[in-house]
Amino acid sequence: MHAPRVAEKATPYWWEAAPLMPPPQQPIAKKLDVLIVGAGYAGLSAGLVLAREGRSVAAYDAMDPGEGASTRNGGITSGSIRPDYATLTRRFGEERALAIEAEGKAAREFLYDFIRTEGLACDFQPVGQFKGAFGYEQYEAIARTAERLAKKLGIEAYAVPYAEQRQYIGTDVYRGGTVRMDIGGLHPAKFHAELLRVALASGLTVHARTPVISIDRDGSGFRVVTAAGPVQARQVLVCTNGYTDGAVPFLRRRLVPVRSRIIATEELAPEVMARLMPKRMMITESREVGFYYRPSPDGKRILLGGRDSSRVGDPVAPKLLLRKGLVNLFPELEAVRLSHTWFGHVAMNRDMIPRIFEKEGIVYASGFCGSGVVWAPWVGMHAAHKLMGHEERARTAFDFRPPAFIPFYRGNPWFMPAFIQGYRMRDRIAMWRASR
Ligand SMILES: Cc1cc2nc3c(=O)[nH]c(=O)nc-3n(C[C@H](O)[C@H](O)[C@H](O)COP(=O)(O)OP(=O)(O)OC[C@H]3O[C@@H](n4cnc5c(N)ncnc54)[C@H](O)[C@@H]3O)c2cc1C
């Protein structure tokens, strides 16, 4: 018996306007200055910088370029860091914690400037982000964060009390929230297609559907075996994030892929969209495993995403969970039809902080923890400067040591469903306490 269809299509909504377009096949170069593994935002951004600096550089992707997370995401330019400021301060001290937060601001500005100066047609809309609070305790906590961001970093951020919430979002589920005007939305697949266009024009070669199979030291460089044959590379950069496979076992044991899923509604009436999302903002929530959602760039649909704790196949339960979440927020959408639902992999380090690091001569740029629209281009660009030995331009608060090893883990995240359920339980307890 077939499971009921929750949505019309199981492919990303984004691929309707920007289908995957693998570049024409090219002969492989036997020798390269730099070989990049992965052609998502991180790999392409690094390749663009390296090619413009005159390096012979090629990016290899096991799938079509962008088919990983970079054309599947929500397009929210959050650039957020999972651990909160108090945790960062406890771990690294106040100076470093503030430097990490300040880097978020710099990375967002870099992205917006890049889109503008390169003329990337990717529906970027600097509309701001609303974060909904579950209960007054969480409202007060996120209001304090907004105040600190405004004071310390000059970000336009402010609290929105419950009484004013409906000016921002047509739900009563939250007990107020905060707004940040430095965050906006873009069309992720158009952004990737445009990045690919300028990277190719700058001299980067991109090989689609050509996995890298192994990377071994060879004299002062590396012998990289690809599905199209061996390549001698002076340097190697790994940008495989949530799709890391056995070709890079060191990273695979340190990076956990987690499914994130999105549903897209059918087109809604303009008056419904105006009532539910009056300011067309990006939306996030204060709980640990919350939803992220937004209007489509044309303002006609709602796209809502969240964690998907399944690991194999394409089961129906996670789709229904998101649908239920959508209706809980907006009861008038009870009978709404969904046009698309799809998932992709985000990548979590043990400490939930993005990374550039070097191990045995190979440079790695990954661990974006679900916030790679801002971080992947930024970290990719810095990784390129690191490879070229540009110390000053490579410097970032993320130039860390390799992420910690995860015990009993070799690339099969068997523990993830239980982990996500644990976080959901914590959220339920917090929401129950808030409702008393
Ligand atoms: C559903 C979803 C929603 C998201 N929403 C947001 C959001 O709203 N905002 C935000 O900031 N971030 C979001 N993200 C995260 C964001 O999409 C990612 O962090 C970002 O795209 C990572 O880019 P990347 O280049 O590092 O990796 P990817 O785009 O995942 O690319 C990695 C590539 O490596 C390739 N690869 C792996 N192994 C090999 C190999 N051996 N040989 C060759 N190639 C290989 C893969 O084929 C893949 O194409 C979301 C992610 C998902 C899945």
| Rg | 21 Å
Would you identify the CATH H-level superfamily of the domain at 126-183 and 257-347 and 416-435?
Answer: D-Amino Acid Oxidase, subunit A, domain 2
CATH topology of the domain at 126-183 and 257-347 and 416-435: D-Amino Acid Oxidase, Chain A, domain 2
CATH class of the domain at 126-183 and 257-347 and 416-435: Alpha Beta
Using the 3D structure, state the CATH architecture of the domain at 126-183 and 257-347 and 416-435. Answer: 2-Layer Sandwich
Helix-strand sequence: EHEHEHHEHEEHEEEEHEHEEEHEEEHHH
Low-pLDDT windows of residues: none
Q: Which structural category do the helix and sheet elements fall into? A: alpha/beta
* Shape descriptor: globular
Q: Please work out how many helical segments DSSP would assign.
A: 12
Number of strands: 17
Query: End-to-end span in angstroms?
Result: 44 Å
Q: Mean pLDDT, nearest integer?
A: 94
Q: What ligands are attached or bound here?
A: flavin-adenine dinucleotide
Helix content: 25-40%
Sheet-strand content, in percent, reads 15-25%
Largest sheet: 8 strands, mixed
Q: Describe it for me?
A:
One of its GO terms (cellular component) is cytoplasm. Residues 33-385 form the FAD dependent oxidoreductase domain. GO terms for molecular function: oxidoreductase activity. Strands 2, 3, 7, 8, 9, 10, 16 and 17 form an 8-stranded mixed sheet that branches. The mean pLDDT is 94. The chain has a domain at 126-183 and 257-347 and 416-435: D-Amino Acid Oxidase, subunit A, domain 2 (D-Amino Acid Oxidase, Chain A, domain 2, 2-Layer Sandwich), CATH 3.30.9. A hairpin with a 2-residue loop joins strand 9 and strand 10. It is α/β, with parallel strands linked by helices. The protein contains 12 helices and 17 strands. Flavin-adenine dinucleotide binds next to helix 2, strand 11, strand 15 and helix 10.
